Amino acid sequence: MRIVIIEDEKPAAEKLKKSLLKANQDFIIEAVLGSNVAAAEWFSTHSMPDLLFMDIELSDGLSFQLLDNIKITCPIIFCTAYDEYWQEAFEHNGIDYLLKPVSDEKLKQALNKYESLKKYFAQNLQLLLQLQQKQTTEFKKRFLVKRGSDYISVKTEEIAYFYATHKLVCMVDNRSQKFILDQSLADLEKETDPSVFYRVNRKYLVNVSAIQKIKAYPKSKLELELQPAAPEEVIISQESAAAFKEWMGS
């Protein structure tokens, strides 16, 4: 872990550095900076560290001045002899507020807190990205299809399912009308909302509203009863059954 210390008292800075390396010899202390000016210069030419230890009352003013002028995105553990700044500290990326002299036990607790927060957000990062993608992705609202010599627009919400047959892909709407499309099921899967349409097998992409019944099938498979009725049995394999059940219950 890459750490930067901002502390204007050399004995305090040296003690903190030794305590950090005692806690974990793999820590990398990238810089020990003694003022707002020195810190501003350092951050202008270096990448953001993983963690910042910061005193508040420095020789050239409060360290909040630095934070108000430079965008610091890493977590900060404040180390100070004064207790009146705690509220402002937590408004500036603060994850802990340690009063001097900082004991090894208090330092260990602060580091454990950092690791816990890091682990929590790492575990939930994928979920957050998926949620963001769902919020920003624009899925198709309608499909232009051919009926005879004319073209009509079918709203996505009116589509019961898509299915592949004899190298063709067909779309069936809620009124049992069937249309032939010039797209693959893979492309249609990308263009439709995954919370509404599910690829139940290699031949069918189904709207959840079209599923009338889910029936047990031999060898732990599932059979779907669709409305309008499908032209053949719609079977979900044993390997895919658990994921489908989870999707239906989400």
UniProtKB/TrEMBL annotation:
<feature type="modified residue" description="4-aspartylphosphate">
    <location>
        <position position="55"/>
    </location>
</feature>
<dbReference type="InterPro" id="IPR046947">
    <property type="entry name" value="LytR-like"/>
</dbReference>
<dbReference type="Pfam" id="PF00072">
    <property type="entry name" value="Response_reg"/>
</dbReference>
<dbReference type="InterPro" id="IPR011006">
    <property type="entry name" value="CheY-like_superfamily"/>
</dbReference>
<feature type="domain" description="Response regulatory">
    <location>
        <begin position="2"/>
        <end position="115"/>
    </location>
</feature>
<dbReference type="GO" id="GO:0000156">
    <property type="term" value="F:phosphorelay response regulator activity"/>
</dbReference>
<protein>
    <submittedName>
        <fullName>Response regulator transcription factor</fullName>
    </submittedName>
</protein>
<dbReference type="InterPro" id="IPR007492">
    <property type="entry name" value="LytTR_DNA-bd_dom"/>
</dbReference>
<feature type="domain" description="HTH LytTR-type">
    <location>
        <begin position="143"/>
        <end position="250"/>
    </location>
</feature>
<dbReference type="GO" id="GO:0003677">
    <property type="term" value="F:DNA binding"/>
</dbReference>
<dbReference type="Pfam" id="PF04397">
    <property type="entry name" value="LytTR"/>
</dbReference>
<dbReference type="InterPro" id="IPR001789">
    <property type="entry name" value="Sig_transdc_resp-reg_receiver"/>
</dbReference>
<keyword id="KW-0597">Phosphoprotein</keyword>
